[in-house]
Design brief:
Chain lengths: 367, 303
């Protein structure tokens, strides 16, 4: 086992009755790494976190934390702290009681408990709240205390189970920054489960995108966004979602993508020479589409030019999302917030095939 | 500007809260129904109280609903300390203390065991938990009468037949299905994450039970106390079967006083004795009504 690996998961399998929730899952998480488990509900991300925490009995496989085999260890012996979506503060105890509960169970001397609580309260700035009961706290304050309860245990690994999902949008953004700051300061290993891709993109060193109990792609946010490994990841990351066109790829000196309503060159897309003719999905992100720029003015950035008809306009203030169609095929793209555009308009859009993604139609894997 | 002035000014017609009529058809119907229902339930109680305060000559006049012309507490005193059952003439007081001695251990033990049962079933999904729970629930639907004779034999073999502790055991066992169900559903309604957090914090089976779950279970404990106190206090069947005359609970003794065929029927003493017997559950309801409703509601919404 390598020294810089904090958590290592080997062939993890979990069945609920006859339902396979996690299948042969392998994952290594480095010391001090911030890993985000991202996926839609029911993909097994929270289940995986509960397995790491020891709150669920696994069917097969092994879990190592800091080189120790903790597969059969109790949650409290694994050296983890956990933060839950619903805060899970003990309602009949004060904030101080909540923070000290785990330490008292572990038999930590009173003096040290007081010191650790003082330090945690200082880090999270919850000193004025120590004597209050959870019912007298706001949502943001409760989640701070919940984070403090993990912090006070002085552990190497933090597990977050959708910690910000119960907060309103503004508080969520604030606490997100705070968690990032906390990670930079403490440099602990953190595993963070969320279904919010903004949280995933902004916080993570690496993102693991999960679907049906499998990790679809594990990589840095930038790679996940720009070079998604398969069609599911491509469609899941990014809002609004990537545009997909079904069609045929013809390789050659000037490789072509074509279907019933469009035909264009994908010259410049990585290593098209090595590919063969095949049925593909062509994907392009809405933010990579240029609008009403003449071909000679933008060079490569809009090498491919298409004529579209606008169906619907969603103004969002900072930018405007436009739903258009090319002979029945939907195309979404972003425009400036002040763009003067309305339904029925005909516009010319352009994009650079280098920024696009091609997926095989059968395997849905990136070409 | 003149235009904006006219826009902000109020127009003629309806404005603000809609007025409601006090004597609307709806109000008459609702309050009328409530009044009739209240009288229906309170009238018998009124007759009992009034009769218990009358002397026998006044009762013989047959004016059931009239208030007492001369208030006397003699029937109450007689019911409590002088009424005869069989050869004992020390009134209901003997039965009262028997009932108290049966009630307190039965209620305490049954609630303590059921709370642990419910907690284990809701939070620690051990192997066979479902089967165990199913058996327990089936137990709640089996008529008591079927089990009377087997229990007589069990108690005889244990040497508890005819004693107070045998009856305590019977009450504890028969309270178990419904109380376990009650506690299990209540603990299941407490967010699972709380239990998980306590496990991460290193608390064990009893640590979580006593420090986290039990302090949160007060409303359901009150519900359980009310159910058990009224159930056990009002029990007649088990009391008459599993104890002997010296140890009869209050209800059995009341029956023996009221249904005695010898001598004159003393209606005022009977009424007083009945009221005395019903007093304990009544007091419990009065003092815990609010918590009772809260506990029931908590279980109903989330359970």
């Amino acid at each position: 086992m390598q020294d810089n690996i904090s958590i290592s998961i080997r062939d993890l399998k979990l069945n609920f009755g006859s339902v396979e929730v996690l299948k042969q899952l392998n994952l290594d998480i480095g010391v001090g790494e911030f890993l985000v488990l991202l996926g839609s509900s029911g993909c097994g991300k929270s289940t995986l976190l509960n397995c790491i925490a020891g709150l669920l009995d696994i069917t097969d496989g092994q879990i190592f934390i800091n080189g120790n085999n903790v597969t059969w260890a109790e949650p409290s012996q694994r050296g983890i702290g956990m933060v839950f979506q619903s805060y899970a503060l003990y309602p009949q105890m004060t904030v101080e009681g909540n923070l000290s509960f785990g330490l008292k169970n572990a038999g930590v001397p009173k003096k040290e408990i007081a010191e650790r609580i003082a330090r945690t309260a200082e880090i999270l700035q919850i000193q004025p709240l120590l004597k209050r009961k959870p019912a007298a706290l706001s949502g943001g304050q409760r989640q701070r205390v919940a984070i403090g309860r993990a912090l006070v245990r002085d552990v190497d690994v933090f597990l977050f189970d959708e910690p910000l999902s119960n907060l309103d949008a503004k508080l969520r953004a604030d606490l997100r920054v705070e968690i990032k700051r906390l990670h930079q300061r403490l440099k602990n290993t953190m595993i963070y489960v969320t279904h919010d891709q903004v949280e995933a993109m902004t916080l993570a060193d690496r993102i693991a995108i999960m679907k049906g109990g499998l990790i679809m792609q594990l990589d840095s946010p930038s790679v996940i966004y720009n070079k998604p490994a398969n069609k599911y990841v491509a469609g899941f990351i990014g809002s609004p979602a990537m545009n997909f066109f079904e069609g045929q790829l013809k390789v050659g000196a000037d490789p072509q993508f074509s279907n019933s309503s469009m035909e264009f060159s994908v010259k410049g897309y990585q290593a098209t020479e090595a590919l063969q003719d095949q049925k593909v999905w062509f994907g392009i992100r809405p933010e990579h589409i240029q609008v009403n720029t003449p071909a000679d003015a933008c060079a490569d950035a809009c090498a491919v030019q298409l004529d579209v008809v606008v169906d619907l306009v969603e103004p969002m203030g900072s930018d405007t999302l436009v739903w258009a169609n090319i002979q029945g095929q939907v195309l979404r793209f972003r425009m400036d917030g002040l763009a003067d555009i309305k339904g029925g308009d005909r516009v010319r859009v352009g994009f650079d095939p280098v920024r696009a993604s091609l997926f095989n139609q059968q395997s849905e894997l990136r070409l | 500007m003149a235009k904006s002035e006219t826009n902000t000014r109020l127009r003629e017609g309806a404005r603000g809260t809609k007025p409601s009529k006090a004597w609307s058809r709806r109000n008459i119907f609702i309050y009328g129904t409530l009044l009739v229902a209240a009288i229906y339930y309170l009238l018998p109680l009124y007759v009992m109280v009034v009769t218990s305060l009358k002397g026998m000559p006044e009762i013989r006049m047959g004016n059931v609903f009239g208030p007492p012309m001369e208030i006397t507490f003699q029937p109450w005193v007689k019911a409590w300390s002088e009424a005869c059952t069989g050869i004992n003439c020390d009134g209901l007081s003997r039965g009262f203390w028997n009932s108290v001695q049966i009630l307190i251990p039965s209620v305490t033990i049954s609630i303590a065991v059921a709370a642990v049962n419910g907690y284990a079933l809701a939070n620690w999904r051990f192997k066979g938990a479902e089967v165990f729970f199913t058996i327990l629930i089936i137990g709640a639907f089996i008529p008591y009468q079927i089990m009377i004779y087997p229990i007589v034999i069990i108690l005889r073999e244990l040497g508890l037949y005819g004693g107070l502790w045998g009856l305590v055991m019977v009450h504890t066992i028969f309270g178990m299905p419904i109380l376990t169900l009650l506690f299990r559903n209540y603990f299941a309604s407490i967010p699972e994450e709380l239990f998980k957090a306590a496990r991460v914090d290193g608390a064990g089976f009893w640590g979580i039970f006593f420090k986290i779950m039990l302090p949160m279970a007060l409303p359901i404990i009150v519900v359980a106390i009310i159910l058990q106190v009224t159930g056990i206090w009002n029990d007649f069947l088990f009391g008459v079967i599993y104890t002997k005359p010296d140890l009869y609970p209050m209800t059995v003794q009341l029956n023996n006083i009221v249904n005695s065929v010898q001598g004159v029927k003393e209606y005022n003493v009977n009424m007083a004795a009945t009221l005395l017997t019903g007093l304990v559950p009544l007091v419990i309801y009065f003092f815990s009504g609010k918590l009772f409703v809260r506990g029931i509601a908590a279980g109903a919404v989330k359970g």
